[in-house]
Amino acid sequence: MADTKVYQASTTAPVNIAVVKYWGKRDPKLNLPTNSSLSVTLSQSDLRTHTTAACSSTFGPEDTLLLNSSPQDVSGARTQACFRELRTLRSALEASNASLPKLASLPLRIVSENNFPTAAGLASSAAGFAALVRAIANLYELPSSPTELSRIARQGSGSACRSLFGGYVAWEMGANEDGSDSVAVEVAPASHWPTMRALILVVSAEKKGVSSTSGMQITVATSELSKHRFAVVVPKHMEAMKKAIQEKDFETFGKVTMVESNSFHATCLDTFPPIFYMNDVSKAAIRAVEDINTRAGKIIAAYTFDAGPNAVIYYEEENTDAVAGAVKGVLGELDGWEGKEVKVQDTKAI
Ligand code: 2P0
Question: Which residues belong to the signal peptide in this entry (predicted)?
Answer without folding.
Answer: none
